Amino acid sequence: xxxPLGYYTVGNVSWNKPIxxxxxxxxxxxxxxxKMLVNETRPAECQTCKNRRYVDASNDSNVSFQxxxxxxxxxxxxxxxxxxxxxxxxxxxxxxxxGGRVVYASVSLKMAVCPECHTxxxxxxxxxxxxxxxxxxxxxxxxxxxxxxxxxxxxxxYII
Length: 160
What we know:
single chain, alpha+beta, two-stranded antiparallel sheet, two-stranded antiparallel ribbon, 6 strands
């Protein structure tokens, strides 16, 4: 028999003896109707995690999470990352439609730990992007100068 050895001592005599096979273990109770199942002993999701809702606070109206939505802590990384990727995709689409190019697009995820069950989760995310437009168009340059002339006197500081 191949298996672990047990070290036994009786009085002053000690020896190595093969451990009994698992099939010979006695005093085990089968799971019955009065016994608790394993999945019943697992802890349920805490109330803080159960009541946590995610909502998009940006002005980008065609992304997910426009209404408060529950996400479990286990899937928060995937869901928030996918949501922030929607913002990046929208930046590239806007740049393509308006003749610009995306200079950069970065995503930052905010991590947190549940104060009740101490489970780590992604608490939110921020997408930052910058689009640069071609300024060789004379009509675009004229529009910018007109906007600049209108904006020039809107803020005045008075000294009394």
